[in-house]
Task: structure prediction
Amino acid sequence: MSIKVKEFGRQGYDSTYQAMRDFNEKRDASTVDEIWLMEHFPVYTLGLSDKTEHLLNTADIPVIKTDRGGQVTYHGPGQLIAYLLINLKRRPYTIKKLVSLIESSVIEYLRDLGLNPERKAGAPGVYINGEKIAALGVRVRKGCTYHGLALNIDMDLKPFDGINPCGYQGLVCTQLVNHIESISVAEVKEKFIAYLIKYLDQSGNIMSDVA
Result:
């Protein structure tokens, strides 16, 4: 099965969120699955649970309610976003398995960089030494997914102090540059997509489209 990869650079969250929903509503059985790669301008996003008690001090950073799973998180420049527009009806896994596959792709990539990533039971995402480096939040509608993965690479981590990240009080977030000084978003984007495709689609059939 083909997966079309699109690169969007740095985007506002609102317009991207609406574009994902529009794509999902308009797609049909023949629509090719897509992965959208981008960064966001600073924004906090709330998951479906809408637990505002996890917002501690958001200052002047906007807060947007969304329909993804999970609690509150932060997006900003220096964080790689991979939105997964996948038709699960064509694939041999459930949404729970999809989340596991995404985590596995991040874990293998980070291990190949010489790091020691891990999962935490009951807390989706990927961690290094107990600190969160990748967050996941996915929504399924009409058998198709949107939202996806946020991987911290080289960003300002201070805004995470303004929330309980993913609903966990005291959770510390980390980023790749804290472990590999010279790494960049561009480098990760170029290398990591192959790992993600490997786990999502064993055919490895990738089409690239720079938008």
User: Anything to note?
Assistant: The first strand starts at residue 3 and ends at 11.
